[in-house]
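Quick one:
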Amino acid sequence: MTLDFNIRISVIDAGNLRNAIAREGYATFAVSEAKGDSVIQKVKEYELVLKNELAVNAPDLKVEIESVQTVDFLIDMNTQLNLLNALYACPHGVIAWSASIPVWLKHPPTLPPLRPKKRL
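Output:
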């Protein structure tokens, strides 16, 4: 989706306690107004996929998308792509936790919130 819709990330925030599975999280990103409706539709389609795949570990999963007018900053595209690849490669939260192996890992690793302190 990032390249298809030229999505630019501003903030990703999910959980803030050490060794805690985030109960909720959000991302703020920018996309051209012309592609906004298509992005909303794609997110709704992806929500159905996620709900199906995570039904056992996250039965109450919700994915919501809403419009905002402006963002304060954007992560540069090279950093954004590296970040997304790293997140995709590192299982975390309910993705890393296996409900079918009782003694595998009670507290799966989580990634910290990603909040740049200054404009990039």
